[in-house]
Predict the structure.
Amino acid sequence: MKRLQSLWYPLLAAAGLACASGCATVDFVTGQEVQNMYSLDEEIQLGQKFYVQTVGELKNENAPIDQDPVRVALVREVTDHVVAVAHATNLPYRATYVGDPDFVNTYAVPGGNILIFEGLWNPKSGLVRTVDELAAVVAHEIAHVNCRHSTEAMTRQMLPNLLLAGAMIYAAVEEKEDAQLILAGTMLAYNGLVVTKYSRADELEADRVGMFYMARAGYDPAAAPRVWERLAGATDSQVEKVLSIFATHPRDYKRAQELRRHLPEARALYEAAPVRRDGSKKLADLPPLQNAKPAAEKKKKNSGS
């Protein structure tokens, strides 16, 4: 037993030192030092693997990917405009359009790949109505990529979970059942409260940074708070279909209020933008979907990231 302790403690100490000393990097957006154990190249590789896996699963479910020229051109045009004013413009960004009108979702993976589902602007259950509002959602995702929220979160969770897991193993070896229960509860509380707190802070940061990006790109930033206000007023049946950035946190007006607080600054960026785009075009006025699979032929996808 003592031999196990003598091996385990140095291992935990080494892991902690490695994380503390080897993962300091500078945030693209704030310029401040943050902890991230992944290099930018590793982050890009990680995101690419996830993207390939996700697209493969979508193809297995017969989801139409990049099959509608009009909508593919639209999401890529909006993405390109926002990327051009982001902090990290040299990442391998790529917008992929998935023509599933029933799946209300959009998300970005580390490194810049973005998946945008047509259900995002479904007239019945979608959350965006205009090109400006689409730009708000795309800019939010690009802000997540630039802030490197995914790998920073993975870094934050690694050491505490490693320490708690180590303590649980020690308690199990020592046959201390009470300690095992306490440590298990601590791990659940940490992941349920502390991790969630950081996640909400990341979302608010992506909201703010994304609104600034869309404004610099020439899209009306007033569209951003409208999206979150629409979610706050959505019915329960609508919310059940909403995934990703929209369902991560409580359905309240806090995000819209925070965005409205920063709207004057965003409005100034919009007024100073070299090009102001006509983003008032309604997405419902786009031509009928092309090459989309009938809903009856598609397998339903029940989860998102």
Remarks:
- Confidence is low (pLDDT under 50) at residues 1-18, 183-198, 294-305.
- The chain is about 55% helix and 5% strand.
- The beta strands are 24-26, 33-35, 94-98, 106-108, 113-117.
- The longest strand covers residues 94-98.
